[in-house]
Amino acid sequence: MNIPKAYEPHAVEKKWYQYWEENNYFYADAHSSKKPFSIVIPPPNVTGSLHMGHALNNTLQDILTRFKRMQGYNTLWLPGTDHAGIATQNVVEKQLLQEGLTRQELGREKFIQKVWEWKRQYGDLIIEQLKRLGASCDWSRTRFTMDEGLSKAVREVFVSLYEQGFIYRDYYIVNWCPRCQTALADIEVEYRTINGHLDYIKYEGVNDDQFVIVATTRPETMLGDTAVAVNPDDKRYKHLIGKEVILPILGRRLKVIGDNFVEIEFGTGAVKVTPAHDPNDFEIGKRHNLQQINILNPDATMNENAGPYQGLDRYECRKKLIEDLKTQGLLIKREDYSYAVGHCYRCDTIVEPYLSNQWFVKMKDIAKPAIEAVKAKRVEFIPESWEKTYFEWMENIKDWCISRQIWWGHQIPVWYCQKCKAPLVERQNPTKCLKCGSNELTQDQDVLDTWFSSALWPFSTLGYPDKTKDLTTFYPTSVLSTGFDIIFFWVARMIMMGLKFMEDVPFKQVYIHALIRDADGQKMSKSAGNVIDPLDVIDRYGTDALRFTLAIMAVQGRDILLSEERIEGYRHFCNKLYNAARFILMNLDDYLDAKSQIPHVRDLSLADRWILTRLNQVVEQVTNNLESFYFNESAQILYDFIWHEYCDWYLELLKPELGGKRRKVIQDLLILTFELILKLLHPFMPFITEEIWQKLPVYREVNSIMIASWPTLTPNQIDLDSIKDMELIKEVVTGIRTIRSEMRIAPKQKLKTLIIKSTPSGILKENIDYVTLLTNTNEVIFNPKATKPDTSATIIVKGIEMYLPLEGIVDLGKEEERLSKELSKVEKELTLLRLKLANEDFVTKAPDEIVTKERQKLEEIIAKHDKLIKSLKSYFH
RNA sequence: GGGCGGUUAGCUCAGCCGGUUAGAGUGCUUGCGUGACAUGCAAGAGGUCACUGGUUCGAUUCCAGUACCGCCCACCA
Questions:
Q1: Spatial CA neighbour of A58 closest among A81, A74, A86
Q2: Å between A867 CA and B9 C1'?
Q3: How is chain A split among helix, strand and coil, in percent rounded to 5?
Q4: d(CA A206, CA A229)
Q5: Whole-number Å distance, CA A555 to C1' B51?
Q6: Which helix (DSSP H) or strand (DSSP E) does residue A849 occupy?
Q7: Which of A65, A277, A622, A656 has the fewest CB within 10 Å, making it most exposed?
Q8: For strand B, which residues in window 222-251 of chain A come within 7 Å by CB?
Q9: Could you read off the pLDDT of A682-705 as tens digits, one per residue?
Q10: Do residues A256 and A230 make contact, with C-beta atoms less than 8 angstroms apart?
């Protein structure tokens, strides 16, 4: 057999992924009678390139999908991408800019054409990257949020929400990004603290003694002031309510009003009121019927209402204005002040509160059933603690601003009659006004928030609004896996829309995975550009190593700070597995059976019974942990078992037997056990397991491990005694090895004799060959009456005393030192145990089994202690 | 201002619905080219489980408080 010593992942990955696709193993049949298991992918942005967050989430989804598929479920993992309105428009705009063009110059229609071109060219990049990750998605069902079908779903939902009165249009103050030149929903604004100033500005009174001083972080907004507000209970200002002050620079007269919103303690206790540029002031303005003066152009330059500052950028204006106020002696004070400012989540520009016509969805009534569904556990959050976050937001939900002033997206399906101004909202594009019959209709220029279509994803992708077989088979989906950062954006909205339009929850379980952060603990985001490239990692370490690393680090409720050393470590694990396979395969050259036999119990050695028992335990643990989303646990259990039990002990123990009478039995067992291991590992490491499985001479009911059956328990193979017995063997071996190592006895040097002070029967005697094999010892003598030879080392394991005669090679000083160290450890333990058992309370109150256990422990330790003392004494005569 | 999470080996992190010899990877020390694997094998050093109290026979684990770190939400100009 000619197999390289080290595992080379890349050719293997390519080969098997192609094989899986060609054989349609990812395809889900909606007509299958098997129990369905379905997941819809959180659709990555078409602009996206696979980052670590994707890698993690999709690895976890693939683990679940492959696990369930092997368990025999009719498994659908539905993939797709999101058109990502603002993000994609930004990308294409940037590209245009390099050609010296703006989208305005190009015009709407041509620009959208450009975006589609871009999408066709680059939009599948992330899909290809997901394939490199090994994702077993049903690519025949790949969807895009602007597909014809999905657009139909969007249209249906918008129109029915409108018809039911849940959608309305309003002239309202919204978050406005001056760079993207669109409105943003509240949750699309990220607040960050910046260091700025708090400026104290004097507004002079009509009479000399009636001035007020206001404090502001955004002095330029004063140009839009239409009042000054004070708290009606504030004694300092009470007398001014109803009087007028003069707005500096512009000279506008402002009424002083009383409003409870104003905090007496903060600043000067007097607030400038700018209804057009501050959400609070907007509300105050409504209460007091104040004029709204817009001072900004959509790009945040100052408009004609800004008087002398017209045309300036908002920050130039601020600077100039402060200088002017200083000159006029109206800037009373300027202090350093840090405060939270909203930034656009797409381009990081500071947003402005801005008045404009926007479309909204009334959320309160839609949210109610969605809250109930989670309370009733029809949707289960994992970990459960995220429920609280969900409830918190849902119970305080505000109306959702769904219109965006961009071009890329689902254009709002509302037409306005140019004659009578009536709006038309129809499922089919209208051709004439229903009121006046005019055919001069213009469609609303805005498009819908990207998240509007995302909210429909679990059913729009399955064929809604048509009543498809896919929908009846796969909806509700089984699991949704995502990061907590989009619980509000996406998860909550899907639950609401699913309940409203499908009358059922969109998924039964939501697994909220950890967030992978960068070195500074900042989250990696699509726009911030601080992403680490998983493809680079795949190139260097292989997909399986990356997947296994992510799985073993996927602890519930804690963020992941990924380190490269860690990945390297798990690449070693791939290599270990690969080499175990090489070892097994090179001993199967003469193996001819088409189907390996499970050997009869009487043919099994202790090691065989032990490994079968352990394997059964591992099957149970891995299965249970995967069912409960404990990815790290199941991965860790597999790692420890395969490396430190199967390879370190089992394979080593059976080596000599491969040349003996039991060769056939051992071969059967190797195939049986190793196939089981490969199956358990397959969801985590799909490529290497397929590669090995295809080489292993197993009996194949199917042609790929990915559709082979998931292991189940074989109770008649379980022999719990074998575990205890193997423990003894391992401890004896380790004890002798420790002495060998400390005495600097070369591995090649054979030990002559081991004297064991016990009866020549029992487990140790029956399996003494294991000990001689692993410790390179020639002969063992069992003698209950043995006395310690002068030049020898002592080993005490579970009450059994052993001597290792070491004439000529022993360093007695070292042995004495070793025994003394052990003695002091034992003495410490002894003291603690005695104290514990002397405690009346412990003996009476602790459970009996614990007390018994401690008593047994004490006995053992006393025996060991005595033996150690005796042994040590032998050095002093 | 509310809410949540973290603090365990030099580093990156598991674990603990109370009783274990507190683990892994990596790094470190020592020995070893051993017929699967040097991406390895064997042995070892390294931890008052952040601090202070409480509950308990018993706390790294449960509770409270403190300190530091981080996240989310919130209209304080």
A1: A81
A2: 32
A3: 50, 20, 35
A4: 16
A5: 27
A6: helix A848-873
A7: A656
A8: none
A9: 999 999 999 999 999 888 889 999
A10: yes
Q: How confident is the model at residue A546 (pLDDT cuts 50, 70, 90)?
A: very high
The residue lying closest to nucleotide B35, measuring its CA against C1', is A583
DSSP 8-class letter at A301: B
Question: A512: Cβ under 7 Å from strand B?
Answer: no
State phi, psi for A413 to the nearest 5 degrees: -80, 55
- Measure CA to C1' and name the residue nearest B36: A583
Interatomic separation, CA of residue A129 and C1' of nucleotide B9, rounded (Å)? 38
Dihedrals φ, ψ of A549, to 5°?
A: -60, -50
Collapse the DSSP code of A389 into the 3-class scheme (helix H, G, I; strand E, B; otherwise coil) and give the result.
helix
CA of A409, C1' of B54: distance in angstroms: 59
CA-derived radius of gyration, chain A: 37
Angle between helices A663-681 and A686-695 (to 10 degrees): 150
Q: Alpha carbon of A611 to those of A469, A582, A651, A658: distances in Å? A: 46, 19, 10, 17
Element at A200 (helix H, strand E):
strand A189-205
Quote the CA–CA distance of A754 and A770 in Å, as a whole number.
Answer: 13
β-sheet bridge partners, residue A228 = A256, A272
CB of residue A436 closer than 7 A to nucleic acid strand B? Answer: no
Q: Is the CB of A536 under 7 A from strand B?
A: no
Nucleotides of B under 7 A from a protein CB: 3-6, 11-15, 19, 21, 24-26, 30-32, 34, 36-44, 56-58, 69-77
Report CA(A311)–C1'(B48) in Å, whole number.
Answer: 68
- A622 CB contacts (<8 Å, ≥6 apart)? A634, A637, A638, A680
Query: Which comes out higher in pLDDT, residue A385 or A676?
Result: A676
Percent of all residues in chain A with a pLDDT value above 70, rounded to a whole number = 96
Residues 746-785 of A with CB under 7 A from strand B: 746-747
The pLDDT tens digits of the residues spanning A320-366 come to 999 999 998 888 889 888 888 898 888 888 999 999 999 999 999 99
* CA A480 to each of CA A67, A197, A322, A477, A508: distance values in angstroms, whole numbers, following the listed order: 15, 45, 52, 8, 8
- Which pLDDT tens digit goes with each residue over A781-837? 998 888 888 788 888 888 888 888 877 666 677 777 778 878 888 888 888 888 888
SS3 A175: strand
Of A375, A450, A441, residue with least CA distance to A406: A450
**Using CA atoms, how far apart are residues A327 and A309, in angstroms rounded to an integer?**
16
Q: Which of A337-351, A471-485, A520-534, A851-865 has the lowest mean pLDDT?
A: A520-534
* A487 CB below 7 A from strand B atoms: no
Question: How far are the Cα atoms of A62, A115, A508, A622, A834 from residue A630, in angstroms, in the given order?
Answer: 14, 41, 17, 9, 40
| Torsion of the alpha carbons at A205, A209, A213 and A214, rounded to the nearest 10 | -40
- Please measure the distance between the N-terminal and C-terminal CA atoms of chain A and give it in whole angstroms: 60
Highest mean pLDDT among A185-189, A221-225, A750-754: A221-225
* pTM to 2 decimal places: 0.92
Question: A206 by DSSP, 3-state: which?
Answer: coil
Instruction: Please state, in angstroms and rounded to a whole number, the distance separating the CA atoms of residues A384 and A279.
Output: 35
Positions 616-675 in A, CB within 7 angstroms of strand B: 632-633, 636, 639-640, 643, 647-648, 651-652, 655
* Nearest Cα to Cα of residue A488 among A456, A455, A515, A459: A455
